[in-house]
Write a structure and sequence with these properties.
The structure holds two protein chains of two kinds. By secondary structure, chain A is α+β, with helices and mostly antiparallel strands. In chain A, 22% of the residues lie in helices and 21% in strands. Chain A has two helices and three strands; from the N terminus they run E-E-H-E-H. A three-stranded antiparallel β-sheet of chain A has the order 2-1-3. The longest helix of chain A has 12 residues. Chain B is mainly α. Chain B has a two-stranded antiparallel ribbon. The longest helix of chain B has 35 residues. The chains are: A alpha+beta, B mainly alpha. Chains A and B meet through strand 2 and helix 1 of A and helix 4, helix 5 and helix 12 of B.
Chain lengths: 95, 313
């Protein structure tokens, strides 16, 4: 058996109730349970979190930075999706 | 040959203060230099646990022992953030560790000095972590996203290390004459190595203009060293300890301290592997790696077994 540093897991921490989990880094671990324990010891030594998610790094698919321009382009030419696009006369309330 | 248009875009991004992320295009020289710097930094955090770990069982009180344990655990955490950040550049941790164990990769010269008395633990937190903070706050502004984010996190935690070290020195300096002497002796032995750990002087290490432009290096070694001296000398005076440099004086015209000559010969000898503890440190690391191997393998076998049981059930 070749030496192993264990598979890589991406770590997401929720800092407080009611807000999203945020990516904080990664850890090596043999399984999910160990990944959660290692993540606690590495990323929440100073009460930085109340909940941890770990995801096998190999399971994450990501958009490609090279295609960033073309990939997100469809939303750039639709300013009418923003409320500020519409001119409403002063004096009209609650709109 | 690398696409000059890509380099142009890469440099424009950095000039505009944007971060470079792992999957972004980057020049090979940038990737190589970062792997070298970041892995050296990671190794320093891990090897740095050894001189301090030496005093955990002999800390003078339960309070000091709990603090030292927490500090050494932080260093392990810093090593892990940095190995992770280095891995984003496409090199794996097994390879990084093998570079440390074979001596191909370096770690900070400072950890090759011994911790002879309890006061050395104070001197390390105050001076070694103090010097590291000067360097790391500069690196936190660097261009590589994962490194910069690791630095921000590390700097926050180092501030506790720095203060607990100063507190140890302060208590000793205000204690019995023997305790004060112990603090002064630790300062005498750690001052120059701490000054040197910030790297060779600028004329011996011409900062590549390119590394500065790429925001891999943010400030010259001498500039960081000067800031460290300017901030640390008054801290020593405040607790009645004397910096072991007879040429040290404050220059009112510049607002900076000038210092005596640095023994660079000693620095380069330690880097080459001839410091007081080089062999001991490396042996402790390779032994830990060898002795830990069965644990890594057993954990993988156990995880596989549980996975199989889950499938059957």
């Amino acid at each position: 058996m070749s030496d192993t540093q264990w598979p890589l897991w991406e770590v997401f921490v929720q800092a407080n109730p009611g807000i999203p989990h945020k990516h904080v880094g990664n850890v090596h671990a043999a399984d999910a349970e160990m990944a959660i324990q290692n993540a606690r010891d590495v990323y929440t030594r100073r009460s930085e979190g109340i909940s941890i998610w770990v995801v096998p790094a190999a399971a994450i698919s990501a958009s490609s930075p090279e295609d960033q321009g073309a990939f997100f382009e469809p939303s750039n030419d639709k300013p009418y999706r923003h409320p500020t696009f519409y001119k409403i006369p002063e004096g009209v309330k609650y709109l | 040959m690398e696409d000059s248009k890509k380099i142009e875009e890469f440099e424009a991004k950095i000039a505009a203060g944007q971060k470079i992320e792992p999957k972004d295009w980057m020049p090979e020289a940038y990737r190589k230099q970062l792997i070298r710097m970041m892995s050296q930094h990671a190794h320093s955090e891990i090897v740095g646990m050894l001189p301090e770990g030496n005093w955990i069982t002999r800390a003078p009180s339960l309070r000091r022992k709990a603090i030292l344990l927490a500090k050494v655990q932080d260093e392990a955490g810093h090593g892990l953030y940095l190995y992770s950040a280095t891995e984003t550049l496409g090199i794996d941790r097994t390879e990084l560790l093998s570079q440390l164990h074979t001596g191909k990769a370096k770690y900070s010269s400072i950890f090759n000095y011994p911790t002879l008395t309890w006061a050395d633990i104070g001197a390390i937190g105050w001076l070694v972590d103090g010097a590291a903070i000067m360097n790391q706050t500069a690196l936190a502004r660097g261009s590589y996203g994962p490194y910069s984010r690791a630095m921000v996190r590390i700097c926050k935690e180092e501030s506790f290390h720095n203060r607990q070290g100063y507190e140890i020195m302060m208590h000793l300096a205000q204690g019995t004459p023997e305790q004060k002497e112990m603090a002064q002796d630790a300062l005498n032995r750690w001052w120059w190595p701490a000054i040197m750990m910030l790297g060779p002087s600028d004329d011996q290490s011409p900062n590549s203009e390119q590394l500065m432009r790429w925001k891999v290096k943010m400030e010259s070694n001498d500039a960081i060293r000067q800031r460290f001296i300017d901030r640390t000398v008054p801290q020593a005076e405040f607790i009645g300890l004397t910096i072991p440099d007879k040429d040290l004086k404050f220059d009112a015209a510049t607002g900076h301290y000038t210092h005596g000559p640095i023994n660079w010969e000693e620095f380069f000898e330690v880097i080459k592997g001839n410091g007081p503890c080089n062999a001991k440190r490396l042996k402790a690391r390779t032994d830990a790696d060898k002795k830990g191997r069965w644990v890594r393998e057993a954990a993988v076998a156990y995880a596989a077994k549980r996975e199989k049981e889950k499938l059957i059930a």
